[in-house]
Design a protein that fits this description.
The complex is a heterodimer of chains A (about 260) and B (about 280). With about 260 residues, chain A is mainly α. Chain A is built from eleven helices and no strands. Chain A has one domain: MetI-like (MetI-like fold, Orthogonal Bundle), CATH 1.10.3720. The chains are: A mainly alpha (about 260), B mainly alpha (about 280).
Amino acid sequence: MNARATLWHVFGWGTVVFMLSPLLILVLFCFSKSSLISFPLTGFSLIWFETLFARGAFWTAFENSLTVTGTVGVVSTVIGTMAAMGLSRMRRRFASVNIAALTLPVMLPPLVLGVALLTYYAGVGMKLGLHTVILSHLVFTQPFVILIVHARMANFDYAIVNSARDLGATPFRAFSSITLPIVRPTVIGAALVAMALSIDDFIITIFTIGGGNTLPTFLWGMLRKGVNPSVNIVGLILLTVTICASLIALRLTRYRG
Amino acid sequence: MIRLLRARGLLVAPSWTAFLLIFVAPLVYFFVVSFWRVSAFKMRPDASLANYIQTVTDYNASILFTFLVALTIAVLVTVVAFGFSFYIRFKVGRFGDTFLFIVLITLFGGYLTKIYVWKTILGENGVLNSALLSLGLIRDPITVFLYNPAAVVITLGHYTLPLAILPIYGALRGVEDTPLRCAQDLGASHWRVVRDIILPQCRIGILFAFTLTYLFAAGDYVTPQLVGGPYTSMIGVLIQLQFGFRFNAPLGSALAFTMIAIALLTVGIVAFALREWLRPRG
């Protein structure tokens, strides 16, 4: 192996280590006995899990997260899939303009979207709560659903749907017994991506939630009160949920770059 | 035909409604607010440029600093992302899919978690210092890891790297091998092949990665707050303050739109420069 190739491998593996090591450190210190997050490790225990699970506030935040993510997942997937289906049968140029517009919320820094929504809700006299969080999450999750489902529809064979229609199926019947079963894995994958983004969102949530907590804002509250290793566990939960969701989504949508 | 068009329009309608009501309307309202003023903790409609004037007179140092940090992050991340994508595409062989997989699983989620982990790694009693101490490499903890702009660069770089790798790798995957072989057989150097064949085909992917990273870094406030320390006053922190203790939404709005304007301008310049640089040569 020559020097150039060695350098490339050092760089490549170095990048992978850089990307992964923080996550591994997080997992490691979830199980550490010590209350300090530092080496050397003095032993392993599940004490920080017990500490966290004994807190009522954690479970409230957990429930709120489930409510928000569940609702966002369903609504975002339904409206995003509808849009993707509609767009896939329009002229290509027109469809891509639509998609570019609808994807804009993803490009805007979340902070700007968060404070703009906060000002707007206050301006129109809307009380903040989980419902405003859900509404706000729709805006930045639906672009992903549209992109993923639309990409699948690009090589969808409409001939079978047209045959079903010719044989007298109503548009709804054709959709539910032909189109949906074929694209179902992609739609579920898109829903999981939307939910992963929603459950992990901190910035937009903290500006639009008013009082209560979801898991990320609960984590933020813990961070401000001084670090205790059970913070790691909230982090681990968020990370595990999002990684699992994206793994399953990857498999389902067969996304490759 | 008209019925069909209407049906397709109806399918897109809910998405557009959400987009208009929860994205466009709030942004328009928020923009209008930037010309208002605040008195006695209430916003009063106005048509003044006072907030913008205050933005460029009082906060110009922060703005400049923010964009320097964001530019550093975006350039570093784009270069590393290109290198890594290049490595996966051309150099790594059988591990390529595994490496790409690792990138993908770190893509979604863990925003707050990742920032916070870097705080525990870089802190005075943190993972890095304690590891170095117990290995006997240092005698006293190093305090310079945390609470400085470099910590912000590392932390945001770590968060945005997977986001930047995907579009670039997507572009690199489309590059065909045959022209590369031909160029090499005809005596082109490695650099010449990269510069004249590979880079021009990845221009859009590179620009997309840069833009994503740059906008995200310029607009973030959590990272500077958690790992940046008191001297890292980035514009995001200032914007966020106007919606907390200071309660000055109009000023916050002016800061936000100034930031977006500068960001778009920079991206425009970078897009132009990239196109000029990668223009086919005779």
